[in-house]
Amino acid sequence: MIVAADVLCYFGDLLPVLTACAQALNTVGYLIFTVEKMIPDNESSYLLNYHGRYSHSQNYIEESLVDAGFNIIKLETAVLRLESGEPVEGFLVTAKKLTQNYDITQPFRSTPLSKQA
After folding, report:
1. Residues of the chain with pLDDT under 70
2. What burial letters (b/e) apply to 81-109, b meaning 16+ CB within 10 Å?
3. Which domains, and CATH codes, for the chain?
């Protein structure tokens, strides 16, 4: 299991980090992390904000996780912290690494494809 709370907001492009996490995890492992939410959540992937942290769009997070070999278990909005008394909105993400036996284009199955009839 890898937990990265208030860490990935310092990365713009998440794909290299998520890929490294997938490589570091055992055959099936979990990744839990937070990132700041891009407001408004537009078509951009990520944005460097005035405070030096990145915010990310939900679509970009979802696509990057799938590309890195993860299945999204839960992606929810949350207040990550208060900054100057104001809430900082973000995402709390739980993802599970898929093994080579899983077809990531299909919904997650608890049984590997090789064991299905």
Report:
1. 41-43, 100-117
2. eeeeeeebebbbbbbbbbeeebeeeeeee
3. 2-115 (3.40.50.150)
